[in-house]
């Protein structure tokens, strides 16, 4: 087996790409769960949405760890490209907003008899997904600006 010729930076960006793909998959699972029929068995629908949201929450918290962590993406970006500090600050702020949205939706789903209506949960869920899509786009732009590397992640 030949030794790897990749650099630590390339390895980190590949790990970031993998995490990005995982987050995208959990976003798709939530979208599918929200779109499923809820009329036949509302409790089952709520459980499916809850399971998808728990998965998304875990993947998003993993995203926060890889970006904001001690050796995370944002620290490296700030060291190599301080001009992007405003973008990093904005993305970090969005992390808190998205976590609050996820937590709010999880709290609604923890009481299936009082979830506030299927339409309300769908509205909140699709609003969350829209925010996540825009956040991922801005994150991808940040990585490209800092490293001229497209993290993509859609497979």
Describe the fold and architecture.
The chain has helices at 8-35, 42-68, 73-80, 85-109, 118-147. With 155 residues, it is mainly alpha-helical. Helix 1 (8-35) packs antiparallel against helix 5 (118-147) and helix 4 packs antiparallel against helix 5 (118-147). It is elongated and about 55 Å long. Residues 13-138 form the Hemerythrin-like domain. InterPro entries: Hemerythrin-like (IPR012312). This is Hemerythrin-like domain-containing protein.
Question: What's the arrangement of secondary structure elements?
Answer:
Layout: H1 8-35, H2 42-68, H3 73-80, H4 85-109, H5 118-147
Helix pairs in contact: 1-2, 1-5, 2-4, 4-5
Quick structural overview:
Residues 13-138 form the Hemerythrin-like domain. The chain is built from five helices and no strands. It has helices at 8-35, 42-68, 73-80, 85-109, 118-147.
Q: Which keywords apply here?
A:
elongated; Hemerythrin-like domain-containing protein; Four Helix Bundle (Hemerythrin (Met), subunit A); Hemerythrin-like; mainly alpha; 155 residues; single chain
Quaternary state of the chains: single chain
Report low-confidence residues grouped into runs of 5 or more.
Answer: none
* Percentage of residues in DSSP E strands: under 5%
Ends apart, CA distance between termini: 27 Å
Number of helices: 5
What is the number of beta strands? 0
Could you say what the CATH topology is called?
Answer: Four Helix Bundle (Hemerythrin (Met), subunit A)
What is the CATH-assigned architecture?
Up-down Bundle
User: Helicity, in percent?
Assistant: over 70%
| CATH class category name | Mainly Alpha
How would you classify the helix and strand content by structural class? mainly alpha
Radius of gyration: 18 Å
Count of folded domains: 1
């Amino acid at each position: 087996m030949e030794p790897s010729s990749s650099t630590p930076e390339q390895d980190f960006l590949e790990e970031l790409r993998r995490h990005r793909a995982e987050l995208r998959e959990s976003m798709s699972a939530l979208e599918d769960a929200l779109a499923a029929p809820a009329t036949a068995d509302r409790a089952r629908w709520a459980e499916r949405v809850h399971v998808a949201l728990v998965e998304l929450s875990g993947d998003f918290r993993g995203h926060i760890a890889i970006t904001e962590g001690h050796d995370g993406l944002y620290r490296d970006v700030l060291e190599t490209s301080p001009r992007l500090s405003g973008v990093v600050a904005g993305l970090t702020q969005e992390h808190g907003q998205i976590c609050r949205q996820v937590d709010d939706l999880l709290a609604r789903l923890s009481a299936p008899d009082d979830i506030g209506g299927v339409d309300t949960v769908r509205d909140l869920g699709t609003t969350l997904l829209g925010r996540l899509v825009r956040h991922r786009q801005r994150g991808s732009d940040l990585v490209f600006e800092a490293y001229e590397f497209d993290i993509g992640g859609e497979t």
